């Protein structure tokens, strides 16, 4: 299904195209994990933040392969070597082999942070109610750039130079591509009724992995082809 609607962001000049999100697979829920707060992808496994554990999932068969005990109440990211995890008002840098927290930096939202991803040598942090995305220095937590959007931010990821974020307000949830300079909405993928996005990560190919909040599920959503 594809249709056109007018997005009301002041920076939007043309209506953003709207598509139904194509969910290609669901994973979970898993024992002891009654919600998913964030997700990332390390090139082989999907990691799901379940509150007290990061759970690695084999995306081929959906089976959990290992877990790390750690506080993980919001977004998760992977920089190619380390995991990063929002925990309350900080972001922990974690050794994925041992689960050891190697360093911590302050989270820019001081506890209201949501999504997290890694790109361009920076961490990108979603702010839920402030409807913002911050680019921050991964060493200090200093804010380098602020992008405003017009919906609650519940996940953030980059895919082939495109900035996408999840949003979830009431019963409506979407994955949105936005202009990284103006915040204007460029494309919208509407999730089916009853499904929300709590964490978002590209696999570097044609899929988004989405946390499913209190459903305890992770969903794989097909990413539209690069224009």
UniProtKB/TrEMBL annotation:
Keyword Transferase: yes
Record flagged with keyword Transferase: yes
Keyword annotations: Transferase
InterPro entries noted in UniProt: WD40/YVTN_repeat-like_dom_sf (IPR015943)
GO MF annotations in UniProt: transferase activity
Protein name (Swiss-Prot/TrEMBL): Glutamine cyclotransferase
Naturally occurring in which organism (per UniProt): Caldimonas brevitalea
């Amino acid at each position: 299904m594809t249709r056109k609607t007018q997005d009301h962001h002041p920076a939007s000049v043309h209506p953003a195209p709207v598509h139904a999100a194509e969910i290609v697979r669901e994973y979970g829920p898993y024992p002891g994990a009654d919600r998913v707060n964030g997700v990332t992808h390390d090139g082989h496994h999907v990691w799901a933040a379940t509150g007290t554990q990061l759970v690695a999932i084999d995306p081929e068969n959906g089976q959990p392969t290992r877990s790390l005990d750690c506080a993980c109440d919001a977004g998760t990211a992977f920089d190619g070597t380390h995991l990063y995890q929002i925990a309350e008002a900080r972001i922990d840098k974690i050794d994925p082999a041992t689960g050891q927290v190697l360093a911590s930096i302050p989270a820019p939202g001081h506890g209201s942070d949501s999504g997290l991803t890694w790109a361009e040598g920076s961490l990108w942090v979603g702010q839920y109610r402030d409807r913002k995305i911050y680019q921050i220095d991964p060493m200090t937590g200093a804010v380098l750039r602020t992008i405003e959007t017009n919906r609650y931010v519940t996940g953030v990821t980059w895919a082939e130079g495109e900035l996408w974020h999840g949003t979830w307000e009431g019963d409506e949830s979407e994955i949105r591509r936005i202009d990284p300079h103006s915040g204007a909405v460029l494309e919208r993928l509407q999730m089916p009724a009853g499904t929300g996005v709590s964490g978002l990560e590209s696999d570097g190919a044609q899929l988004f992995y989405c946390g499913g909040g209190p459903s305890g599920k992770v969903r794989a959503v097909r990413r539209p082809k690069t224009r």
